């Protein structure tokens, strides 16, 4: 006869009788909880395996008549009914004070009946899912990282032009629904070809990174900067008129002039020209960007190192 099958189960498990007394505590449960069978049998201290203060465990709850209320009270949003065993409940929780350190655990409990169909207790199994939880968190983090990489310009760390297209489409459809204004600034470094020609491509890259950092430092949280092309950047400023965008653009332009002596490349000071426009009803991406581009062209034609708002 199989007398010790409960002890041979590798999943931590324990039995309670209908009075909530522990009548079974297998070796796997001893290992998980650090509490021996001798300590537990005949007591109602099953909570000690999981909690620092007395409270019902899941096996206690499945024995209660007001099970659903109790579940809501103790495991709100973290429990579900199992399909495989009728009346069984599963829950997941974080246990900061387990003997081997904090653990995430998944546990299931169900009522046990005798051969006449009378309730004679409840059984609970406990599975340590800490590793799965860490793995899932790692996957989410990796996914976020790769997503971030796919929308970021590798040299400068601002968003890339592929993402700009998506963001402009979103902003345009938001504004066409709400009528809310937004502005864009097109920024183009002046005579940048000379930097590459005189000091080399790597020095040029340093200038691009330096300039991108100046842009980032001068933006609010809701503003976004993109690398539009080679030495051309675009800033998207939600809920912003051209007058306010002008203030931001000028701050960036002046910072570039003032901060340049920090740049350790020996490169002669570089300046930037900026064109600004704001959303007009009926705008498409090409009309909006085209206006900013025309304003930028006017800034270049006006002698560079200046900001012009589109007519
Ligand atoms: N170092 C570096 N240079 C780049 C990069 N992308 C584009 N460029 C350079 O940027 C320069 C752009 O030159 P132009 O389009 O003639 O413009 P410009 O010299 O800035 O002249 P203006 O715009 O009229 O002031 C070219 O020399 C490109 O090779 C890059 O990723 N790194």
From TrEMBL:
Residues covered by the GGDEF domain: 180-311
Gene Ontology MF term list: diguanylate cyclase activity
PROSITE patterns xref list: GGDEF, PAS
Cofactor: Mg(2+)
Domain PAS stretches: 1-70
Protein name, as recorded: diguanylate cyclase
Record InterPro entries: Diguanylate_Cyclase, GGDEF_dom, Nucleotide_cyclase, PAS, PAS-like_dom_sf, PAS_fold, Rev_trsase/Diguanyl_cyclase
EC numbers on record: 2.7.7.65
Reactions the enzyme catalyzes: 2 GTP = 3',3'-c-di-GMP + 2 diphosphate
Source organism of this protein record: Nitrincola nitratireducens
Pfam families: GGDEF, PAS
Biological processes annotated in GO: cell adhesion involved in single-species biofilm formation; negative regulation of bacterial-type flagellum-dependent cell motility
GO cellular component: plasma membrane
Enzyme class, spelled out: transferase
